[in-house]
Recover the amino acids of this structure.
Protein backbone atom coordinates (compact mmCIF):
# COMPACT_ATOMS: atom_id res chain seq x y z
CA UNK A 1 0.00 0.00 0.00
CA UNK A 2 2.81 2.40 0.89
CA UNK A 3 4.63 1.66 -2.38
CA UNK A 4 1.42 2.28 -4.30
CA UNK A 5 0.88 5.60 -2.52
CA UNK A 6 4.42 6.70 -3.27
CA UNK A 7 3.87 5.89 -6.93
CA UNK A 8 0.63 7.84 -7.13
CA UNK A 9 2.10 10.90 -5.43
CA UNK A 10 5.19 10.87 -7.63
CA UNK A 11 3.19 10.62 -10.84
CA UNK A 12 1.27 13.80 -10.01
CA UNK A 13 4.38 15.82 -10.77
CA UNK A 14 5.11 14.21 -14.15
CA UNK A 15 3.43 16.82 -16.36
CA UNK A 16 5.09 19.69 -14.52
CA UNK A 17 8.50 18.08 -14.89
CA UNK A 18 8.03 17.51 -18.62
CA UNK A 19 7.06 21.15 -19.14
CA UNK A 20 9.93 22.48 -17.06
CA UNK A 21 12.56 20.25 -18.66
CA UNK A 22 11.34 21.33 -22.08
CA UNK A 23 11.97 24.94 -21.12
CA UNK A 24 15.40 24.07 -19.75
CA UNK A 25 16.60 23.02 -23.21
CA UNK A 26 17.00 26.67 -24.10
CA UNK A 27 20.06 28.63 -23.02
CA UNK A 28 17.91 30.91 -20.85
CA UNK A 29 14.99 29.13 -19.18
CA UNK A 30 11.72 31.05 -19.52
CA UNK A 31 10.92 31.30 -15.82
CA UNK A 32 8.19 33.85 -16.46
CA UNK A 33 6.38 31.23 -18.56
CA UNK A 34 6.84 28.60 -15.85
CA UNK A 35 5.35 31.02 -13.30
CA UNK A 36 2.44 31.88 -15.60
CA UNK A 37 1.59 28.23 -16.22
CA UNK A 38 1.94 27.56 -12.49
CA UNK A 39 -0.62 30.24 -11.64
CA UNK A 40 -3.06 28.90 -14.23
CA UNK A 41 -2.75 25.26 -13.17
CA UNK A 42 -2.24 25.71 -9.44
CA UNK A 43 0.91 23.58 -9.40
CA UNK A 44 3.00 26.12 -7.49
CA UNK A 45 6.03 25.40 -9.70
CA UNK A 46 8.28 28.45 -9.69
CA UNK A 47 11.64 27.24 -10.96
CA UNK A 48 13.54 24.15 -12.06
CA UNK A 49 17.25 23.67 -11.55
CA UNK A 50 19.02 21.50 -14.10
CA UNK A 51 20.87 19.81 -11.26
CA UNK A 52 19.90 19.51 -7.62
CA UNK A 53 23.33 20.80 -6.57
CA UNK A 54 22.67 24.14 -8.31
CA UNK A 55 19.90 24.97 -5.85
CA UNK A 56 22.05 25.20 -2.71
CA UNK A 57 22.55 28.99 -2.77
CA UNK A 58 18.81 29.68 -2.82
CA UNK A 59 18.21 26.81 -0.40
CA UNK A 60 20.44 28.45 2.21
CA UNK A 61 18.40 31.66 1.94
CA UNK A 62 15.09 29.83 2.36
CA UNK A 63 16.36 27.82 5.34
CA UNK A 64 17.42 30.99 7.15
CA UNK A 65 13.88 32.38 6.81
CA UNK A 66 12.00 29.18 7.67
CA UNK A 67 9.76 28.74 10.71
CA UNK A 68 10.01 24.96 10.28
CA UNK A 69 11.98 22.57 8.06
CA UNK A 70 11.24 19.02 6.89
CA UNK A 71 13.87 16.95 5.08
CA UNK A 72 13.50 13.56 3.40
CA UNK A 73 16.77 12.50 1.78
CA UNK A 74 18.22 9.40 0.21
CA UNK A 75 21.72 9.89 1.60
CA UNK A 76 21.91 13.23 3.42
CA UNK A 77 25.20 14.71 2.24
CA UNK A 78 23.62 18.15 1.79
CA UNK A 79 22.69 18.17 5.47
CA UNK A 80 26.38 18.32 6.41
CA UNK A 81 27.18 21.30 4.18
CA UNK A 82 27.11 25.05 4.77
CA UNK A 83 23.50 25.64 3.70
CA UNK A 84 22.25 23.66 6.70
CA UNK A 85 24.82 24.87 9.24
CA UNK A 86 22.50 27.51 10.83
CA UNK A 87 19.99 24.77 11.73
CA UNK A 88 22.56 22.89 13.80
CA UNK A 89 24.25 25.94 15.31
CA UNK A 90 21.01 27.50 16.53
CA UNK A 91 21.43 30.59 14.33
CA UNK A 92 18.25 29.74 12.41
CA UNK A 93 14.82 30.95 13.49
CA UNK A 94 13.32 27.52 12.73
CA UNK A 95 11.36 26.19 15.71
CA UNK A 96 11.12 22.65 14.31
CA UNK A 97 13.49 20.60 12.14
CA UNK A 98 12.46 17.08 11.12
CA UNK A 99 14.95 14.92 9.22
CA UNK A 100 14.40 11.53 7.60
CA UNK A 101 17.20 9.35 6.26
CA UNK A 102 17.17 5.70 5.13
CA UNK A 103 17.74 3.16 7.89
CA UNK A 104 21.24 1.74 7.38
CA UNK A 105 20.55 -1.06 9.87
CA UNK A 106 17.93 -2.74 7.69
CA UNK A 107 19.42 -5.72 5.87
CA UNK A 108 16.54 -7.83 4.60
CA UNK A 109 14.50 -6.26 1.77
CA UNK A 110 16.21 -2.89 2.17
CA UNK A 111 15.16 -0.05 -0.12
CA UNK A 112 18.55 1.51 0.53
CA UNK A 113 20.19 -1.51 -1.07
CA UNK A 114 17.81 -1.29 -4.04
CA UNK A 115 18.85 2.31 -4.62
CA UNK A 116 22.49 1.32 -4.26
CA UNK A 117 22.00 -1.30 -6.97
CA UNK A 118 20.50 1.34 -9.28
CA UNK A 119 23.46 3.66 -8.71
CA UNK A 120 26.02 0.91 -9.28
CA UNK A 121 24.69 0.43 -12.82
CA UNK A 122 25.99 3.85 -13.90
CA UNK A 123 28.67 4.40 -11.24
CA UNK A 124 30.87 1.31 -10.92
CA UNK A 125 32.62 2.80 -7.87
CA UNK A 126 29.52 2.10 -5.80
CA UNK A 127 30.10 -1.08 -3.84
CA UNK A 128 27.08 -2.77 -2.20
CA UNK A 129 27.81 -1.20 1.20
CA UNK A 130 29.03 2.26 0.12
CA UNK A 131 25.67 4.03 0.20
CA UNK A 132 24.81 2.38 3.51
CA UNK A 133 28.14 3.56 4.93
CA UNK A 134 27.56 7.14 3.72
CA UNK A 135 24.14 7.25 5.38
CA UNK A 136 25.64 5.98 8.64
CA UNK A 137 28.27 8.72 8.52
CA UNK A 138 25.68 11.43 7.89
CA UNK A 139 23.46 10.16 10.69
CA UNK A 140 26.42 10.22 13.07
CA UNK A 141 27.17 13.80 12.01
CA UNK A 142 23.58 14.95 12.52
CA UNK A 143 23.25 13.26 15.89
CA UNK A 144 26.33 15.13 17.08
CA UNK A 145 25.54 18.43 15.36
CA UNK A 146 22.01 18.58 16.77
CA UNK A 147 22.95 17.46 20.28
CA UNK A 148 21.26 19.77 22.76
CA UNK A 149 19.40 21.59 19.97
CA UNK A 150 15.70 21.85 20.78
CA UNK A 151 13.14 21.12 18.11
CA UNK A 152 15.34 18.79 16.04
CA UNK A 153 14.06 15.26 15.35
CA UNK A 154 15.98 12.60 13.41
CA UNK A 155 14.22 9.48 12.17
CA UNK A 156 15.03 6.57 9.86
CA UNK A 157 12.87 4.90 7.21
CA UNK A 158 12.85 1.83 4.99
CA UNK A 159 10.65 2.88 2.07
CA UNK A 160 11.11 3.43 -1.68
CA UNK A 161 14.15 5.69 -2.05
CA UNK A 162 12.61 7.71 -4.90
CA UNK A 163 12.99 11.37 -4.06
CA UNK A 164 14.48 14.13 -1.94
CA UNK A 165 12.22 16.66 -0.23
CA UNK A 166 13.35 19.80 1.56
CA UNK A 167 10.31 21.76 2.68
CA UNK A 168 9.72 24.87 4.75
CA UNK A 169 6.55 26.75 5.67
CA UNK A 170 6.93 28.73 2.42
CA UNK A 171 8.62 26.60 -0.24
CA UNK A 172 9.81 23.12 -1.11
CA UNK A 173 12.67 21.66 -3.14
CA UNK A 174 11.57 18.40 -4.76
CA UNK A 175 13.90 16.04 -6.60
CA UNK A 176 12.72 12.75 -8.11
CA UNK A 177 15.64 10.35 -8.30
CA UNK A 178 16.52 8.78 -11.62
CA UNK A 179 17.71 5.20 -12.03
CA UNK A 180 20.45 6.51 -14.36
CA UNK A 181 21.90 9.47 -12.43
CA UNK A 182 22.98 10.57 -8.97
CA UNK A 183 20.49 12.70 -7.10
CA UNK A 184 22.82 15.71 -7.30
CA UNK A 185 22.65 15.50 -11.11
CA UNK A 186 18.86 15.19 -11.26
CA UNK A 187 16.56 18.19 -11.91
CA UNK A 188 15.22 19.88 -8.79
CA UNK A 189 11.77 21.48 -8.68
CA UNK A 190 11.37 24.69 -6.67
CA UNK A 191 7.74 25.06 -5.63
CA UNK A 192 5.88 27.59 -3.52
CA UNK A 193 3.02 27.23 -1.07
CA UNK A 194 0.18 26.90 -1.66
CA UNK A 195 0.15 24.63 -4.70
CA UNK A 196 -0.25 21.04 -5.85
CA UNK A 197 3.46 20.26 -5.94
CA UNK A 198 4.03 21.78 -2.51
CA UNK A 199 1.25 19.52 -1.21
CA UNK A 200 2.88 16.54 -2.98
CA UNK A 201 6.19 17.31 -1.30
CA UNK A 202 4.60 17.39 2.17
CA UNK A 203 2.66 14.20 1.45
CA UNK A 204 5.87 12.42 0.47
CA UNK A 205 7.45 13.50 3.73
CA UNK A 206 4.43 12.68 5.88
CA UNK A 207 4.11 9.14 4.48
CA UNK A 208 7.77 8.43 5.25
CA UNK A 209 7.58 10.06 8.70
CA UNK A 210 4.57 7.95 9.66
CA UNK A 211 6.46 4.80 8.66
CA UNK A 212 9.78 5.71 10.27
CA UNK A 213 11.60 4.84 13.48
CA UNK A 214 13.16 7.36 15.89
CA UNK A 215 16.84 7.71 16.63
CA UNK A 216 17.89 7.73 20.28
CA UNK A 217 17.25 11.14 21.91
CA UNK A 218 20.20 13.51 22.29
Amino acid sequence: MTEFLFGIISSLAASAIVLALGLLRGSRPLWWLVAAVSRCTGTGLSRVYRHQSAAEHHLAHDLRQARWVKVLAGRGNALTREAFAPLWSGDSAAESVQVLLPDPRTVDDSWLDRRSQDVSRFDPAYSPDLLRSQVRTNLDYLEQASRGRRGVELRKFNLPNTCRVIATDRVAYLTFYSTSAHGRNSPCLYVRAPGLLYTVALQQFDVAWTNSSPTPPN
